[in-house]
From TrEMBL:
UniProt-recorded Gene Ontology molecular function terms: cadmium ion transmembrane transporter activity; manganese ion transmembrane transporter activity
Positions of transmembrane segments: 37-57, 77-96, 108-131, 143-161, 181-201, 222-249, 269-295, 307-324, 330-354, 366-388
PANTHER family tied to this protein: SOLUTE CARRIER PROTEIN FAMILY 11 MEMBER, TRANSPORTER PROTEIN
Native species: Hymenobacter amundsenii
GO biological process, alphabetically ordered: iron ion transmembrane transport
Keyword Membrane listed: yes
Bilayer disposition of the protein: Multi-pass membrane protein
Keywords for this protein: Membrane, Transmembrane, Transmembrane helix
Protein name per the record: Divalent metal cation transporter
Locations listed in the record: Membrane
Keyword Transmembrane set for record: yes
Length: 393
């Protein structure tokens, strides 16, 4: 593989991960929790970024050196475990994708004025178009890069438009006045939980970037993906904080749209349409692609007709959205669901990192292993605390 092509794939994998994370759920969660916690939400973002780094670097490296998809690795750790994880990932990916389709509808509706259901179908159609062409992988890489750039530039502009209290944000990021465990697990789950954790790693594997010799490239791609997602979250937080600090009320029916409109009037509302549509369509692609990559373990015949299964996954997500509706609530719950899945998947890959039968002579960095174990423990504790609270215990 040529270096230029390598770089294109590395960028594509990074942006596939980042734009999978920066979906409608990401935009909705960040807006809702910033309104709830104010400047203290900066601490939640900092914590989630640190957890994200620990997750992605561990997962991508183990996938690369094992030269296997995550569920195949899990089956080698414990027979049958990969199938269990695959079911959880596919269900979590489907839940997220229902919200992603709804997000595409909300974004395109803001741009065109057409009804949200009609726009949701049109947005899903754009995603379907990617997998109807012969060079779907290359087109997916390019689309993720372009949409990622659009997301970053637009959200940075809106953030500066709201004149957020930067000093207060910086202070409360280090010394928060309030803390919400649910927001941390939802953010981490929405950024690197479930299928999102594996989107970039599986993409590199499919593109032939694998083995211990490829680890420097894998690490660069993972760090770039985390950086893009983190940059967008920080600026969206600042944009929302700028609106909240002015005492303006955010519309609960469509929180991100409300922030953009309050920040920059009708132009802001149109910009929201661009951001939400770009985020949603790229997330539909990332969710479908990665979820089906897990389904191959349960149903080996999927590999022969992968694009058809991806198209079917997108169609099913669209039909479920048209039946269920309520994209805001679906997106919040999907993030929390994927946060519960994360300790199991990351813990499994950490065990695999020390199985020579899986990774050969590769030696996993101790600092990454310790960081990964801490993430597993923290996320298990947070998930348990949230579950007990939900059960009234």
């Amino acid at each position: 593989m040529k270096p230029a092509r390598n770089w294109g794939v590395l960028l594509g994998a990074a942006f596939l991960m980042a734009t999978s994370a920066v979906g409608p759920g990401f935009l909705t969660q960040t807006t809702v929790f910033t309104e709830r916690l104010g400047a203290s939400f900066g601490f939640v973002i900092l914590a989630s970024i640190l957890l994200d780094i620990g997750v992605q670097l561990n997962v991508w490296r183990v996938i690369a050196v094992a030269e296997l998809r995550a569920p195949d690795i899990a089956n080698r750790v414990l027979p049958g475990l990969g199938s269990v994880i695959s079911v959880l990932i596919v269900l979590g990916g489907l839940a997220f994708n229902v919200g992603n389709v709804g997000g595409a509808g909300l974004g395109l509706s803001a741009l065109t004025g057409l009804p949200v259901p009609v726009c949701a179908v049109l947005g899903a159609g754009v995603a379907l178009g990617i997998f109807l062409v012969r060079e779907a992988g290359r087109l997916m890489d390019r689309f993720a890069q372009v949409m990622g750039l659009v997301l970053v530039l637009t959200i940075v502009y809106v953030a500066f438009s709201t004149h957020p209290p930067l000093a207060e944000a910086a202070r409360r990021t280090l010394v928060p006045t309030q803390l919400d465990l649910t927001s941390i697990i939802t953010l981490v789950g929405g950024t690197v939980g479930g299928y999102i954790t594996f989107s970039g790693g599986h993409r590199l594997l499919d593109a032939g970037i694998r083995g211990e010799a490829a680890l420097p490239e894998v690490t660069r791609s993972a760090v770039l993906g985390i950086s893009v997602a983190s940059l967008v979250r920080v600026f969206l937080f600042l944009a929302t904080l700028g609106v909240v600090s002015q005492g303006l009320a955010i519309d609960a029916a469509n929180p991100p749209a409300s922030v953009f409109r309050l920040a920059a009037g009708e132009l802001g509302y149109r910009l929201f349409g661009v951001v939400m549509f770009a985020a949603a369509v790229t997330s539909i692609i990332g969710s479908a692609y990665t979820s089906i990559s897990f389904l191959k373990v349960l149903l080996p015949q999927v590999a022969a007709r992968e694009n058809r299964w991806i198209i079917g996954f997108i169609v099913l997500s669209t039909l479920l959205f048209l039946t269920i509706g309520q994209p805001v609530q679906v997106l919040l719950w999907a993030g929390a669901l994927n946060g519960f899945i994360l300790p199991l998947t990351l813990g499994t890959l950490l065990v695999a990192a020390y199985r020579p039968a899986i990774v050969g002579s590769y030696r996993h960095p101790l600092v990454l292993a310790v960081f990964g174990v801490l993430v597993v423990l923290v996320m298990t504790w947070l998930s348990g605390s949230v579950l007990l609270k939900a059960l009234g215990v």
